[in-house]
Amino acid sequence: MPLPRLIPCLDVANGRVVKGVSFVGLRDVGDPVELATFYSAGGADELVFLDIAATPDDTQTMTSVVTDVADVLEIPFTVGGGVRSVTDASRIIEAGADRVSLNSAALAEPSLIGAIAERYGSQAVVVAIDAGEGVVHTHGGRVATTTPTLAWAVEAAERGAGEILLTSIRQDGQRTGFDLELTSAVRSSISIPVIASGGAGSAQHVADALRVADAALVASIVHENPSGLPGLRREIESLGVHLRPLKERP
Amino acid sequence: MSDVVIVDYGAGNTRSVRAAITHVGRSSEVSADPDVIVAAPYVVLPGVGSAQSAMAHLNETGAAAALRERFHQGAATLGICLGMQLALGTSEEDGGVTCLGLLEGKVVRLVADRVPRLGWAIVEPWGDAYYFAHSFVADAPDAVATSDGLTVAVQRGAFFGVQFHPEKSGDAGLTFLGRCLSLA
User: Fold this and answer.
1) Phi, psi of B178 (to 5 degrees)
2) Nearest to A66 by CA among A75, A52, A54, A78
3) B126 — phi, psi (to 5°)?
4) Is this prediction's pTM over 0.90?
5) In chain A, what are the domains?
6) Which residues of A, range 187-216, sit inside 8 Å of B by Cβ?
7) What is the pLDDT of residues A156-178, one digit of tens each?
8) How far apart are CA B178 and CA B184, in angstroms?
C-alpha cells in the first residue's frame, strides 16, 4: 500500500488564492505559485487547487496558473472547479496538472468520467462528492439531490474514476474531526482510493482520517499557519501514522 | 542539441518532465524526430496516455525504430511509468498491445488492494519514497527495484525504466533524475 497522503487544498479565484491563508513566511499570500512551492517544501504530498470562481473569464486565468504551478512544483497536483467537458479536462491536464476533479458536472453527465479516463487514464480523474444525510449535494453543499452517496461512489468508480474526494458537508469547516463513519462506508464499497475531506482541526483528526482513508484534505488547519506544515506532519507521525519520509534537496 | 530529448508521442503533458530536467541543471527539448532521438546524448520516454495510442504514435513517427536503434547502440534512455512499460514486449492494456521489445517481459493489470495504485511508496533497495499512479505493472526478469513486492524499476544495457514519476517525486525524484542524467 502506498503511504497515506496529506493534501493541502487551495481555493483559487481569478488567479489568486482566496480564503484564510495567513501571511507567515510568505511574500505574497495570494500567489498560488508561491504558496504551492511553500507547501511542497513543507512536506505536502500532493496539492488540490479548487477554482471557486470558474467563470468563463476566469478559465483562461486558471489555465495560466496551472502552467506556472507545473513549472515549479515537483509533487502531483489536482485541479477542480469548472471542469465540465473533456475539452476542459484536456486544457487543464495539458497545461500541466496531473489530475482533474469533477463534481456537479459528473453528476449531470456521468459519461464524462469515462470519457476523460479513456483519454488520460483513471489516475487522472478524481470524482469529488459532497455528501450529507446519505445523499450527494451540489452547489457547494447547499442543495441536496436524491442520489445516494454510496451508489454514486460505486457508479463513479465503475465509470473509471481513479479516486473519490469525499467531503462531509456536516463536518466541513467545523474543525471537529472528519466523518470517519461516512469515509469508511464509502471506501469499503469501492476499490479505488478515497481522500477524506472536511473537519480537520488537529493532528489527531488527520491521523484518525488517515487510518480509514488513503489521503486527507486539509485547508484552514494549514492555511492559518503555513509554516506549521512540517510540525503537523511530525505530530501525525507521532500518533503512529507513517507518512512518506522526506529527503534533503539535492 | 539539448542534453536531453523527451520523446513526443502526442499525449500532451511533458511540461513537468521538462521542468524537473531544468531543475537539475540540464537542457531539454521535445521531439518525435527519429534522427534527433538516435543522436541525443540522453533520451526520456515519458509516461502519459495509453499504451495503444502511445505505440501507434511511436510507430507512425519512426520514433519506435529510433528507440530500438539507440538501445542496440548502448545509448542511454530513461523510461518513466508508461514509458518504462513500453520498453517491454507486450502490454495487456487496451486489449493487448505490442510494445518496443527492448526488454523481455510483459505489462499486466495490477492486482492490489486499491487500483489505481496512487501515492508515495518506498522503493527497495533504494529506501526513498517516490510517487506512483498506475493500474498496470511490469512482469519482467530485468527487475532492479521493487515496491510493495511489485517490479518498479528495470534495467538492461543502457535502458533504465521506472514505474514511478521522478518528476513528481519531490527531492527524492530530483536526486534520482540528476543521477540518471549524469550519464548525459
Assistant:
1) -60, -40
2) A78
3) -75, -35
4) yes
5) 5-238 (3.20.20.70)
6) 191-193, 214-215
7) 999 999 999 999 999 998 899 99
8) 10
Interface mutation target, options A100, A244, A249, chain B, most CBs of B under 10 Å: A244
Q: Which residue has the cell 543502457?
A: B158
Closest CA to B80 of B20, B40, B149: B20
A3/B175 CB distance under 8 A: no
Place of cell 495560466: A64
Asked if pLDDT for residue A183 goes beyond 90, the answer is yes
**CB count, 10 Å around CB of A206?**
28
Whose CA is closest to A137, among A121, A148, A126, A125?
Answer: A148
Residue type, A137: H
Give how far A118 is from chain B: nearest CA, Å. 8
Structure-block grid coordinates of residue A183: 469515509
Domains of chain B by start residue, with CATH = 4-181 (3.40.50.880)
**Residue B79 to residue B44: CA distance in whole angstroms:** 6
Task: Answer yes or no: is pLDDT of A245 > 80.
Answer: yes
Three-point CA angle B38, B60, B79, nearest 5°: 50
A61 touches A22 (CB < 8 A): no
Residue B51 contacts residue B85 (beta carbons within 8 Å): yes
Residue B102's nearest CA partner among B42, B17, B162, B161 is: B161
- What would the pLDDT profile of A32-53 be if each residue is shown by its tens digit? 999 999 999 999 999 999 998 8
Active-site residue, selected from the candidate residues B57, B134, B165, B180: B165
